[in-house]
């Protein structure tokens, strides 16, 4: 038991500086977004309650979070105006989620058991959005979600988080305005390719 406690303490010390900066971003930007979008989320919840009944407004699913702790992910049962994502902002402020991180996986999801994945998934909060969510639309062969999550785990920080959030907003605006999505990603196409790939592949 003492060994487990020592390892947990060492892990917390090693991750503290970077994690604290990202947590400040989650709290400041997450709170601002929560306040700004709360009326739209409330109206969406009311519309769903009228149309489907109060019991069909929220979807609740178990997800694995920081340190392997299981929490309940709550989302509005609609994707209109991305209200399902915006409805998760209280969980960002509370600390179950981060604004940016790997996709929240269900307990027992085999992706969490891949070699090396178990450790970094326990070291990071799952995200409201993430590198995998903004890059998989690019169609590039190296943009595999598991590879993108791994890349994020190795390079995450406030600067990368802000770049991902900017790209997520651009994608959302393209969807809302009906503009065709570009098949070329705006983030660097070279920083997480599979070995052996080149621009002409």
Give the N-to-C terminal Cα separation. 51 Å
Q: What does the main sheet amount to?
A: 2 strands, antiparallel
Low-pLDDT sequence parts: 1-12, 180-201
Structural class: mainly alpha
- Give the rounded overall mean pLDDT: 79
- Report strand order across the widest sheet: 1-2
Radius of gyration: 18 Å
Shape summary: globular
Helical residue percent band: 40-55%
How many beta strands in the DSSP annotation?
4
* Oligomerization: single chain
State which percent range the strand residues make up.
5-15%
Number of helices: 7
Structural domains: how many:
1
* SSE arrangement, N to C: HEEHHEHEHHH
Pfam family, one: Bac_transf
Keywords: Membrane, Transferase, Transmembrane, Transmembrane helix
GO molecular function: transferase activity
Family: Belongs to the bacterial sugar transferase family.
């Amino acid at each position: 038991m003492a060994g487990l406690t020592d390892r947990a303490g060492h892990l917390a010390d090693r991750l503290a500086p970077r994690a604290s900066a990202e947590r400040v971003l989650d709290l400041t930007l997450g709170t601002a977004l929560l306040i700004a979008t709360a009326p739209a989320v409330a109206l969406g919840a009311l519309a769903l309650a009228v149309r489907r009944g109060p019991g069909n407004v929220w979807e609740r699913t178990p997800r694995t979070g920081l340190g392997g702790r299981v929490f309940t992910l709550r989302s509005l049962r609609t994707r209109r105006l991305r209200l399902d994502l915006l409805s998760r902002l209280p969980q960002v402020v509370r600390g179950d989620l981060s604004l940016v991180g790997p996709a929240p996986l269900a307990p027992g999801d085999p992706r969490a058991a891949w070699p090396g994945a178990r450790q970094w998934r326990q070291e990071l909060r799952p995200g409201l959005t993430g590198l995998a969510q903004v890059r998989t639309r690019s169609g590039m062969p190296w943009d595999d979600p598991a590879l993108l999550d791994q890349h994020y785990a190795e390079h995450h920080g406030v600067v990368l988080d802000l770049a991902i959030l900017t790209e997520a907003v651009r994608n959302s605006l393209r969807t809302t305005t009906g503009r065709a999505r570009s098949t070329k990603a705006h983030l660097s196409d070279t920083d997480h390719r599979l070995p052996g790939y080149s621009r002409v592949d």
